[in-house]
Amino acid sequence: xxxxxxxxxxxxxxxxxxxxxxxxxxxxHIFEGTFSLLHCAVKDDTLYRGVFTVLLFPVTHPDSxxxxxxxxxxxxxxxxxxxxxxxxxxxxxxxxxRAALSRQYYEQIITRIYTVKxxxxxxxxxxxxxxxxxxxxxxWRIDRAEDYGHNGKVLLDALDNRYIVxxxxxxxxxxxxxxxxxxxx
Length: 185
Hints:
Blueprint: H1 3-7, H2 11-17, E1 22-23, E2 28-32, E3 38-42, E4 47-55, E5 64-71, E6 77-85, H3 91-104, E7 107-119, E8 122-129, E9 132-139, E10 145-148, E11 152-156, E12 162-165, H4 173-180
Parallel strand pairs: 1-6, 7-12
Antiparallel strand pairs: 2-3, 3-4, 4-5, 5-6, 7-8, 8-9, 10-11, 11-12
């Protein structure tokens, strides 16, 4: 065991150290309630209605560290707790959480880049996504293209929609050249 591994607590200890409540299948029941809203019952606590989900590490841990939250009667968002490993939950509850996450994280996966043009500090993209061929505009600024994993990029268009290039290096050579001519950081 390396020195780093010896100093690094396991995730359960890390959650305990931060006083974040761990939500496990033994203590938590997630179900669809009134108006198809997500509900969460926590053992020895209460029933939370209108629950929404947030991935704490959406790129590196898409099935782990899912925060369940709700809005209280004063319109304040409060965290119910964190699901450390979604795969530990029953399949029906996993599906409900994944459906809630898909509403929260709606993103397009870019598989081809046909053209990129720059005019007036705006990049105009013509791309292929899982929905088909699309066009979008993105301000040509460093804060609009963020790292995604080891070789990917997340592009935020003018309306803050997310377009993901999972691996820039895996793009066809001509697409790679078009992309990196403008997004080189």
